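Loading example: each entry is read as four labelled lines plus one structure line.
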Amino acid sequence: MAMSPKKQRGELFSVACPSRQVLQNVTSRWGVLVLVALLEGTYRFSDLRRKVGGVSEKMLSQTLQALEADGFVLRTAHPVVPPHVEYSLTPMGTEVAREVDSLADWIEGNLYRIMKQRNARSAASAH
Amino acid sequence: MAMSPKKQRGELFSVACPSRQVLQNVTSRWGVLVLVALLEGTYRFSDLRRKVGGVSEKMLSQTLQALEADGFVLRTAHPVVPPHVEYSLTPMGTEVAREVDSLADWIEGNLYRIMKQRNARSAASAH
DNA sequence: CAGGATCCTAAACGATACTG
DNA sequence: CAGTATCGTTTAGGATCCTG
């Protein structure tokens, strides 16, 4: 198929574009990790917290709520005591998560190349 | 086709993993937009600033330096007066930028779906 | 023109304590 | 267990002024 030579990018560069907020939620510090983690399957809150190293309760909760509001994450609460809540990806969430995962994958796969590049440069200007 | 049932993700979930910093630079608020913009070609500082709506001089400068340190952006300064500096992607930068672009593309392409989902949910809890 | 230096505000983040 | 509330700290981010 013929690829379009000039893909017309929409409103992403515009200050008020709603894409930016969604992009922020998805690419936020913890958003990325949560999406990638949920790609593996369903997690409970505490398990997810253990899985994603370094995240606080507050931030995990906040991140999950943002992703849920965007329709990427499904929150399923079982009415038992003690509470049992499960988080998983919606079909739409799975799609974004795959994109994010692909990016994360690239970075992990090229970390060595990147770090080499980085050291080569920082050697020139030793603060 | 036999797909691997369990892709082993590396250290991304570990608190101290260097991938996280790179990921942050690439997925930062302005990092994303700069990478996508540079995918179109070379830009001068001011042009890039105009292109990326809403970015301040300071943040653009900071973002470019981070991406340059990671080896994603090439800074070319022509020794003339007034100064003429051009920014472009390195081969490695082009690779990440494509990943980021793909993600941004997905979001823009699905914005309508996302926004519908969002409104459906926020209607349930008014405030 | 390209950006560094400075100052200041707002937001993100984390730790702890507490509740249904 | 799964969070919310509160508080204090840190970082991001923006506005302005200044220089090579």
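The two ends of chain B are 49 Å apart (CA to CA).
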